[in-house]
Amino acid sequence: PDPSPSKTDPDVCEDSREDQLSPDGPERLKQQQLVCGEALHTDEMSPFTAELLTESGETSYRFRCPGPGVFRCALTGLVFVMTQEAELRYNTVQWDENLLQSAGRMAAGPLFDIKCSEDGAVCQLHLPHCDTKEALLVDGLLSVVHISDDGMSILEPLKITDTHVVLKVPHLSALGLVWDFVRRFVNLSLPIEAQVLLFLRSSYTAGQRAIRRRRAHPHPFLL
């Protein structure tokens, strides 16, 4: 007998649900385009203070985004454009100066290692920069480095504002701002605007009468 018209193919329904949940599904891609498009034309952001985590002496940040929107970290200045609820974890890591020099680049800010609990949940990332309006007029001075297991690549920003470099996120790993070495050297007189953080690394030296004196070594860090 012919099946009832009211029945549907269960395989088709299952495929449809999986397609909608997939990071590359049409519904998800449509939502990403909508959220990211709106984010480029708005200054409205939801500030948050991330949870600080300390493990083996290393500090990282954690925040669970409640849903789609634009969220700004009050501690680092990072801005995440989200398409759905997801948990973010991120921390700063050491730049490989030799790798940068081989590409004719120099660090222009911290290198952030970013992870997200959901693939495709972060569609844009805004990295804070310290360049003035005069410096931003220099074409090609500022770009973004993306470092992964496949190596290092240079990414062109979608947009550069007075405070941030806006980037479409290919996939999350280590991301940071870099200057073109030659352009920065030629324009060395251009000022920068930054918050300077000093990190103290302590060491001890033996003195007379076996008195140990503490000596602090400051490490400047620009944000």
From TrEMBL:
Lineage of source species = Eukaryota, Metazoa, Chordata, Craniata, Vertebrata
Specify the superkingdom. Eukaryota
A GO cellular component annotation in the UniProt record? cytosol
Principal subcellular localisation of the protein:
cytoplasm
Compartments in which it is found: Cytoplasm, Cytosol
Ranges where the record places region Disordered: 1-28
Q: Which organism is it from?
A: Etheostoma spectabile
Which Pfam families does the protein's record reference? Answer: FIIND
Report what the protein is called. Answer: FIIND domain-containing protein
Ordered alphabetically, the record's keywords are: Cytoplasm, Immunity, Innate immunity
- Report the residue ranges that make up the FIIND domain in this protein: 41-223
Ranges annotated as biased composition (Basic and acidic residues): 8-28
Q: Which GO terms describe its biological process?
A: innate immune response
